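Researcher: Re-running this chain for the archive, since the previous output was lost when a drive failed. Same request as before.
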Amino acid sequence: MWSLKCANAKIDKRLQYYLIGCVFGCLLLMILPKPFKVKRSTTEEKSSLLHGDYPYTYTDGYKRKINLPGPPQRVVSLAPSITEIIYAINASKYLVANTLDCNYPKGARNLPKIGDRVHPDIESILQYKPDLILGDLFSSPVQYKQMADLGLVAIAMKQTHLDVIMHDMLIVGKLLGQLNAAMQLVMKIQKKRDLIIDRISVLKKREPVRVIFLYDLNQLVIARSNLWVKEFVTLCQATDIADEVSKLASPLSQGLMAETNPDVIILALSLEAIALNKREGNIDNLAPHSVWKNSAAVCNHHIIAMDKDLLSSSGSRILIAMDAIARAIHPEISLSL
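Model: Regenerated structure tokens:
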């Protein structure tokens, strides 16, 4: 009887794993833009690569239909987040150039540069003879049209909300033959997001935590968060109050009202600025400025400095950023698995 129960338990466990696999498979079919057949190379070197059928048509962030005749071999990245994704899915061998803003990971710094993400130099791009250019909406539709007129294949990824970013990751993985690696990256992000939501849900706080992001301690510039950061702050049962503060005529001179009194201040600074201000004691006191001295964040010593590049990332470092933001808002939670 005991052995029969054990056998039944094993069967139930296998059935559970089978159902989980089926559910994840259905989610992938919903995320990917269209079904595609998997082509495996016969060579040992490319046995793990997955490419979609070609020619392939994709509608990008500017709603342009982009036709790709075949698998790309020479890629130029116009955005730091795209560069991060390419490295994270082990497809950096296809990357021939990127922008001055692409500083992560370290290997990306050594690649040839084609200008910055806002003003890419199209003449420089032409020198590297790319068969695919991947960027985001920081580059304008006019710039993408100029590239298209020159016969270049350029795709603008949306890189907005978290689900859209994960969809972009899958597309990059599909285009560069690393769909398996892209799927694993997306699964890690989903798992981290679900863990954070689960751990925060048991806190049962009465009111959402009021959060504000500041750039530049010298001027106390209020930062508008990326869409995915603003969305994630909400998932953390918090409110980004930048919009409320900005509605005031002179928010820093009128004093703090209830809706503009931050519980948490997150300073988005460069790593060098963080180190310098820590040495000078500015981060703890927001010195020499006194506009926040009576805020809940300052009174409760709830001021956190974060790498601004981490907060602006829409690439693989989202994993690190989500963890940092969640801990900054709710330092009491445990995010260990």
